[in-house]
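#lab-general

N.A. 3:47 PM
ok so I finally got the sequence cleaned up, no stray characters, all 209 residues accounted for. can someone with queue access submit it? mine expired

B.Y. 3:52 PM
send it over

N.A. 3:53 PM
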Amino acid sequence: MSENIKKAYGFAIKSKVAAFTLVMSAFSVCRLVYDFFSLPMVEFFERLLHVYRVITHTIFDGLTFWIPFDFSSLSKDVIILYLLVGFTYQKIKIMQAEYRFHALTAYSINGWNDKPPPKKLTFWLRRTPGLLLHSIAWPIHLKQIILTPVLYEPKGHGPTAMMFGKRPAKGERYYNTYHGDIRLMMLFRLSAIFIATAIVVGVNYAFSI
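B.Y. 4:20 PM
back already:
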């Protein structure tokens, strides 16, 4: 269990990107809570959340300029939070793509197929639409996460594949590297967002009374 906790913490919270998106998620929740309940906010947090909203909404507008209707500020915050909550699954799909790139490269270099090594830019351009789709539709894969929560590198593949699977029976080991339980990763992620939001709300309340 301790190994699972360490891996879940490292995967879902510890990295710089994970920590950054976690802070952004907490800002999103805070913004929604204070807007929905019309709560008072101290000047420091007001400015901080204003900067967050300017940055994220500007990026959002730049990515959705082609959509023939406008989004309200509330809907933008909800959509941004939705994408940030799915960070763990999105990160896994990006890592799987990286493993696939290394696998194709290894196959070519070692002569296991007659294809040339993939060009990195071309590979990621082809993968981008699928990765974006996974980022948007991540709740569809919750069944897969629940039924096959183990993330691992299978035996015989080396560092060239990352798969979802069921927890092995006692004494059985069908993987080279165990990356952790995805359910625990997502639970850590949601818990961290809740705790960070609670801290911001608590500190704001303490300074506003």
